[in-house]
Specification:
The chain is of the alpha/beta class. The chain has one domain (about 5-260): TIM Barrel. It is about 40% helix and about 15% strand. It contains ten helices and ten strands. It has helices at about 20-35, 50-60, 80-90, 115-120, 135-140, 150-160, 175-180, 200-210, 225-235, 240-255, and strands at about 5, 40-45, 65-70, 95-100, 125-130, 130, 150, 165-170, 190, 215. The strands form two sheets. It has an eight-stranded parallel β-sheet. It has a two-stranded parallel sheet with strand order 6-7. Helix 2 (about 50-60) links the parallel strand 2 and strand 3. Helix 6 runs parallel beside helix 7 and helix 7 runs parallel beside helix 8. The longest helix has 17 residues, at about 20-35. The radius of gyration is 17 Å and the shape is globular. It starts with a strand and ends in a 7-residue tail after the last helix.
């Protein structure tokens, strides 16, 4: 089974109340994924709040065999841990997503103590957008990359919250140094979604972290299922490692055994 651990709802419909249109477009997205061989997709909510959770719950109700929901957390709402508990225990959500917010960049990641503790208690992962900071980098990369944070924050998360599983999206951006910084902390993992195509990313992740800490993700609709799958399928790693990355790791971490 192939599990895409990093997908979003179709871009034109984010934040709308047009459920019929959203269902139709999501069905088309699922059809494309299935043609690519993807069995399940983790939907990472980009909006925060009760309405966003209800919309995602309804989509999962319509497509229970394919969609796996993650709640979006907010830097500015102390109710996040309680909301996560409700989403996980009552509605079957499988994790929580963090992303930058206006005026609250990802340099604030260390301020989510209660949320990380709650995620550990519930045995669900925290998946965060990531793009690690290097001296001078923000001056030369496109302005779309706005969520920089120092490598020291990644290391601090590993040290402070060893019981919480973190999945850093997009291979950490500056992938060689991100993998090296995370290596001593077995709770720090990476998805391979998005980012600019470079040779050797998946191979280096397996070499430094081991295959059990690497996840396939597409980052659709901003990326292509086929192109993102190819990064893993054609990597110079063993077939066993590919099986772990493409699905078995997600099945284990998200406890999807009963949802095959």
């Amino acid at each position: 089974m192939i599990v895409d651990i990093h997908a979003h709802l179709p871009r034109p419909l984010r934040g709308t109340d047009a459920m019929d249109e959203l269902v139709s477009t999501t069905a088309e997205m699922i059809g494309v994924a299935r043609r690519a061989g993807i069995d399940k997709q983790v939907i990472l909510a980009l909006e925060y709040g009760v309405q966003a959770n209800e919309t995602l719950r309804e989509l999962v109700r319509r497509f229970p065999d394919h969609l796996v929901p993650f709640m979006r957390a907010s830097f500015v709402d102390d109710a996040g841990p309680a909301m996560l508990e409700e989403c996980v225990r009552k509605y079957g959500f499988k994790g929580v997503k963090l992303h930058e917010e206006p005026r609250f960049p990802l340099t604030g990641l260390l301020g989510f103590h209660a949320l990380y503790r709650k995620a550990a208690e519930l045995a669900v992962p925290v998946l965060t957008h990531s793009w690690h900071e290097e001296e001078g980098l923000v001056d030369i990369l496109p302005r779309m990359h706005t969520s920089y944070f120092p490598m020291a924050i990644l290391e601090d998360l590993g040290k402070r919250y060893p019981e919480t599983t973190f999945i850093f999206a997009h291979a950490g951006g500056i992938w060689v140094k991100a993998f090296q910084a995370a290596q001593p902390f077995p709770n720090l993992c990476f998805d391979m979604s998005g980012f600019d195509p470079e040779r050797g990313i998946v191979e280096k992740a397996v070499e430094v972290l081991g295959p059990e800490r690497v996840f396939f993700g597409s980052d659709v609709p901003g990326r292509s299922y086929a192109a993102q799958l190819a990064k893993v399928r054609y990597a110079d790693i063993s077939e066993r490692d590919k099986s772990l990355i493409l699905g078995e790791n997600a099945i284990r971490v998200l406890n999807l055994e009963g949802r095959r």
